[in-house]
Specification:
Blueprint lengths: L12 H5 L27 E6 L14 E2 L2 E2 H11 L5 E6 L2 H10 L2 E4 L11 H10 L7 E5 L8 H12 L5 E8 L4 E4 L2 E4 L16 E12 H7 L7 E5 L11 H14 L9 E5 L10 E2 L5 E2 L4 H12 L4 E5 L4 H10 L2 E4 L4 H11 L7 E5 L5 H6 L2 E4 L5 H6 L2 E2 L8 H16 L6 H4 L3 H5 L14
Parallel strand pairs: 1-4, 1-6, 4-5, 7-11, 12-15, 12-17, 15-16, 17-18, 18-19
Antiparallel strand pairs: 2-3, 6-10, 7-10, 8-9, 13-14
Helix pairs in contact: 2-3, 8-13
Length: 455
Amino acid sequence: MGTLQIRAATWSAEAKRHPAFTGATLRLPSFSGMTGQNETSAPRVVAVIPARGGSKGVPGKNLRRVGGVPLVVRAVASARAASLVDAVVVSTDHDGIAEASRAAGASVIRRPAALSGDTAGSEPAVLHALDGLDADPGVVVFLQCTSPFIDPRALDEAVAQVLDGRRDVVFSAVETHAFLWRESQTGAVGVNHDHTYRLRRQDREAQFQETGAFYVMRTAGFRHAGYRFFGSVGIASVDPRTAVEVDTEADLEIVSALAAVLDRPEPIDVDAVVTDFDGVHTDDLVHLTADCTEFVTASRSDGMGVEMLRTAGIPVLVLSKERNAVVAARARKLRVESRQGLDDKAPALTEWMTEHGLDPARVAYVGNDVNDLGCFAAVGWPVAVADAHPQVAAAARIVLGRSGGRGAVRELAERVLAARAAAQPAAASPSAASPTAAQRTGSPVAAPLDQEHQP
């Protein structure tokens, strides 16, 4: 399975700061209107994502974040990443979902209350969305937000089967050899096996379990049947790791853990990096001696990350609310600028960007606590460390996989350098810009401290 890379788009200021959307990191193709990639004719394939506002099991489910990205935005990103999908439509009754969906590149059709209750089915919502289009597409893809790891390549393969006439419907499923049972008045009875004789797994015929992620349907047949299954039905077998549906808070915990494995970290395309000190370069703890002398712990791995940025010619600034000799000492050792004793860090950040002629949209600010929110609003790349305050994580464009003082700055540096390498592949330095373990495996990796350089 290809890992889903959810990247950053160009947002309006309002969309970027919407509480449902902040934290999402998207870089998607430009999109407008209902005609998708071909603006001269009706789209052949339209993905419809039903996403109502109400949810009993997980309140606000479609706006809950997995890997820092709202579920509805993940669904839009997967659909738009599929090369055979021409347009993406979100059907919703909720203002926040509508705004997040538009910001992610989807069109929105407002769903009436009659189709938005707890007993409302998905098919009526998809049909209502089709009725809102100028013309029916040849193929409609019913996509569900509750599946956060939809592989665009699997989706393309399913669409191709319907487009070329092999199948009328193709749905996502996982192969299973599970032994199913049901209870009866006389006791448990095997459903898909003879429970009086146990075959080996390799001797049993494979069966398939729906994942609920997507259903690709010939539009005319779907309208005629009014239901997602009709005619010749095919199966798109997908990676079992992606098969978790979010129906409960426990499911949300599971997929959040999986995101660290299945999502690929996005390169951070910026011209400068500004960081808080406490909680970013340190673990936010203060150690006290008997005479109340304070000292903190910093990561050599983070120090190497700063050196990598400097070597690449990327300006780095450290800002701190505290006035402490350790801040200045650490900055001197790292050979970067620092400004401290700042009750409000945002004016100092703005002044520094102006002095250096920097476009705020291309500056990253890394923070961990609520006094960093002002700086978040001043730059295009607000970044939170993994253990940031919830308000900070909610306002971040990117939430790092590493905590403050434990490799967060190193992770940021590697992702900044990865963006530079992608933009200038011919000039990329093998030592500074080659893919790190973080980019290769999809999870951030910091080298052990005793293997690090001394900055």
